[in-house]
Amino acid sequence: MLISAITGILLSLKKEVDLLQPPTQKGISKSLDTWKPLSEIATIATTTFHERYPDQKDNAIDKMDVRPSKGIVKVLFEKGYWEVQVDGTSGDVKSIERRHSDWIEQVHDGSIISDWFKLLSMNVLGIGMLLLMGSGIWLWYGPQLVREYRRKR
After folding, report:
1. 101 and 134 housed in the same domain
2. Are 94 and 41 in contact (CB under 8 A)?
3. Residues facing residue 63 across a β-bridge
4. pTM summary value
5. Domain of residue 127, residue span
6. Distance (Å, rounded) from C-alpha 34 to C-alpha 122?
7. Total domains in the fold of the chain
């Protein structure tokens, strides 16, 4: 529970603290009509990333987060929690940084160990929290009920 609480606090701050998650850059245009194709953006991101970090040559794209409202595509890589932000219109690389919030989230939900552990631990934590809440409410409200019952007798 302590690990989940600490990582939960860190995750709540991820948009406020640049070290946890790189700030989303702004692109030239929000209009998808003016954007480069995603395949070209993927090539730009991969090429630039691999040129800057040659030791990451075997690191492939995991997913692409398209942000039309910002004019940006965030290209996320499979290993090392790397993110490359590319302007959707010009293809300019705006940022190459690590996303520490991703590994913190995996610690938070237990998926850093395995998906099976995540399922088990999150259910145990959830049930435990419900039991703690229920017993806390009873310890606070129960004596009041007992006193009122005794007064009526």
Report:
1. no
2. no
3. 76
4. 0.79
5. 114-152
6. 43
7. 2
Residue 153 binned pLDDT confidence (cut-offs 50, 70, 90): confident
Would you call 86 exposed, middle or buried from its count of C-beta atoms within 10 A (0-12, 13-18, 19+)? buried
Q: How far apart are CA 16 and CA 42, in angstroms?
A: 27
Q: Are residues 69 and 50 in the same domain?
A: yes
Domain identity same for 16 and 36: yes
pLDDT one-digit tens code per residue, 51-102 = 999 999 999 999 999 999 999 999 999 999 999 999 999 999 999 999 999 9
Q: Quick one: 101 and 138 in the same domain?
A: no
Rounded to an integer, what distance in angstroms lies between the CA atom of residue 53 and that of residue 46?
A: 10
13 and 53 housed in the same domain:
yes
Within a 10 A sphere around the Cβ of 124, how many other Cβ atoms?
12
Beta bridge pairs of residue 64: 75
pLDDT digits (tens, 9 = 90+) for 18-31: 999 999 999 999 99
Q: Looking at the structure, tell me whether residues 93 and 28 fall in a common domain.
A: yes
- What CA–CA distance (Å, rounded) separates 71 from 26? 6
Q: How far is CA 62 from the centre of its chain?
A: 14
